[in-house]
Amino acid sequence: MSETLIKFDNITKRFSLRKGDIVAVKDFSLEIKKGEILTIVGASGCGKTTVLNMVAGFLTPSSGNILLDGQPITKIEPRCGMIFQNYALFPWLSVRKNVEFGPKINGVSKKVRREESAKYIEMVGLKGFEDAYPGELSGGMRQRTALCRVLANKPDILLCDEPFAALDAMTRQIMQQELLRIVNESGQTVLFITHSIDEALILSDKIVVMSVRPGTVKHIYDIELPHFGKVEVQLTDEYLKLKRQIWAMVEEEVKISMKIVSS
Amino acid sequence: MEGKELGLWGSSVIGAIGLLVFLSLWEILVRTNVIDPFFLPAPTQVIDKAIQMTTAKDAVLLTDIKISATRVLTGFLLSVLAGVPAGLILGMNPVIRAAINPIISIIRPLPALSWIPLSMLWLGIDEQQKYAIVFMGSFASILVYTTDATMRVDPTLRRAAMNLGASPLQILRYVILPGALPDLLTGLKVVLAIAWTCVISAEMVGANSGLGFRIWTAKEWSDTGQVLVGMISISVTVLVLDILFRGLERVLLPYQRKTSGT
User: What is the pTM of this model?
Assistant: First the structure.
C-alpha cells in the first residue's frame, strides 16, 4: 500500500504564448502511492489539468521528471489511463467495441477481448447496453462506458479530469459512489482533478490544494473520515471541519487569481 | 401547419399531387396551343418519345444512359481513389497542406468545361478523355472535402486513442477514417452530382454517344421531344444514384440512424 507509483520531481511547465512565457506549474513535487485516491483541487487556471496532461504524456515538463514506477514518462503513456470530461467515446462504435478498443489495438485476441469486456461492462453496470451506441446513452452511462474502456486497458493509474463535471447533481453523486466501489474492487490508483471540494472529500485518501499560477503544492491533507465511501460521510463534524479548512485555503487562492485577472 | 411534421406518407402524397398538378397544367397549356409544341412538347408526347427511344431495335436511350453513367462512375471512382488518400494526408499534415493549398486554389475554381480543349488535344475524343474531364471536375472538390472532414475529427478522440496505446497508423485506420466518414460521404454525394454536369458538357462538345451527345444532336434536328427525354433521363439517373448513395450511408453509418432519431 505504501509503494510509490508516481513521483513528481520538482516539475516546472512553461508555455510560450504570443504575449510571452507563462509559467503554469512551478516546483511541483508530489508522490502518489499505489492504491491511493489522490485528488487535486484548486482555483481554475491553477494548472491542475496541466499536471494531469503531463502524467498522461500529452505534455512534457519544461524541467523536472515525472516518474512512473521509477521510470520517467517521456511519451504518451497507456499505463496512465485518462478519463475525459467530455467522455471522448468513439460515436461510431458500440459500448462493447469502445470498451474493446484498447485491447484490440494492443493485439489481444478476440475471444479474450470479449470475455474481459463482458467482465468490465458488468462491473460498471452497463450489462444489457453492450450494443448501444454512445449517442443513445445518458451522460452518466457514457461516463461509465469511458471508465470501462480505460479499465479494460488495465492501466496502472486512472487519471480523471473532472469526469463528472458535465453531469447533473444526482447522477454525479451516484457516479462518485460507483467510482469508489469499482476502485475498491480493483485496487486502482487514482489521480482525480476537480474544483468541487465536496467531490474531493467524498472520494479521496489524500487532497492536494494547489496555489494559483504558477501552480504548486500548497497543502496536502490526509483524509480519514468516519463512514468513508458512504453518503452519510457528508453529515459528520469531521467532514464539515475539513471542508471549512480547505475552502478557506482555496478561497484565498481564488481571490488572488481574481486580482491577477483584474489588474 | 407550422412546426408540424407531415411524416413520410403525408409528404409523399402532397409531393405527388404537386407534381401531378404541374404536369397537368403543362399538358393543358400545350394541348390548347398556348405553348407551341414545337418549342415545348406536352408530357404525354415526351413519354411517347421516351417509349419510342427505348423500344426501338437499338434501344438508344438505355445505351446512352449506360454509356454516360459508366463515364461518370469511372471518372468519379478514379477521383475518389486519388483524392481521398491525398485529402487524408493533407488533413493530418499541416506542412503538406500549406504547400499544396495554393495549387488547389488555382485548380478548384476551373469549370470542367475549361479542361475540354486541352483534354481533347491530349486524349482525342475517346473514353479516356471523358474520364479525364470528370476526374478534373471532381478531384479538387473531393480533395478539399476529404481534407476538411479529416480536420473536423474531434482532437480529443485522437488523444483518447493515443492514450489507449494506438500508433499513428492505427489512429488513421480506427479514428480518423471512421470519424471523417459522415462528412466525407456528404461531400462525395455533392461531387457525384458535379461529375454528371462534367460528363454531359464533355459529351455535348466532342462525342458520338451518351446523353449529352443525344441532347445536342436532337437540338440540331429541332427535336425538342428528344431534348426533354435526355434531360429527364439525367434527372432520373442522378436521383437513382442519390438513393443508392443514401443506402450506402445507412450501411456505413448505422450509428447515425440510431442516434439522430428520437
Answer: 0.81
